[in-house]
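Schema walk-through. Below, the input block comes first and the output block second. Nothing else is stored per chain. Lengths vary across the set, and this one has 348 residues.
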Amino acid sequence: MHIILVLLLLSFSVAINASDHAAVSAFKDAISGSTIATTAWTGDDFCIWLGIYCDPNTLRVTDIVLRADDSSDSVVGDKKLDLSGSWTGLLSNSLCLLDQLTTLIITDWNSISGEIPPCITSLSQLRILDLSGNRISGEIPSEIGKLTQLVVLNLGGNQISGSIPTSIVSLQNLKLLDVSNNQLTNEIPSEIGQLKMLSRVLMGRNQLTGSIPGSVAGLTRLADLDLSMNKISGLVPDAIGSMPVLSTLNLYCNELSGEVPGSLFGNKGLSHLNLSRNVLEGNLPDSFSSESYFTALDLSYNKLNGEVPKSLGSVKYMGVLNLSNNDFEDQGIARNGCFWYCFPQCDC
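--- output ---
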């Protein structure tokens, strides 16, 4: 009886292994023409293939990690993998059969193209989806919100078009959202503030329109917000300056108007602020303090006017300051690159 039970368990394990084998083999066939198929992925035991990782107990595929710039994942012996051949159609539907997959990282191969198959949203265990630095086109799957375990979504540096799906606000565990340097259009989902775990949101270098959602200010864990080089208009929400851990805010090269919120200068943690090349106007608020610490503050190429705030001279640190191409009454750029005021680190 005991022997029969063991045989049944082994048979069950082999059946699951066979299912994954078929999926990985189809994936291998899709990248024929590159040395990964002939050098690194040989034999029937795909769990020892370079970049393929399995659970040691179930022999199910849990991770696929193929980074072009990572020598540990891209070199077999003294041969570097070459995926620049005929690897197109990056993600075949076969990968959607790997229902225990938690990590899918295929980054920086540059020549890889194709679309993200909609069925990828069926991988309910997926925690990391990183396809950055390729030539992936098409749209982000509309039901991306089904991947509720997702912690990292990085699709930056591709040719993805269309809108950011509204379902993305269902990714309650998401910490990194990077869709920068694509061809995305339309507005940022208004309820993005529901993603309370987010620490980085990178959407720069797209063609996004509309205004900055007010709900963004509710992202209390957000440290890095980059919406630069889009077509975003409207006001800079005053509440952004009250975000407790925000350290980097890049909104340059948009169509933002109105005045600069005084809360931005009073935020003690905000160290990198770039609002250049918008249509901001009015006086700068006199809300700098001795605890303000800026590695970079760029407000150039706007329509700001009036006097430069006296409190600017009291900041604890100012690395790079650019107020050029505005209409300030004080235009004095002094020696050593310091503005008219003497900052503590400058020899004014």
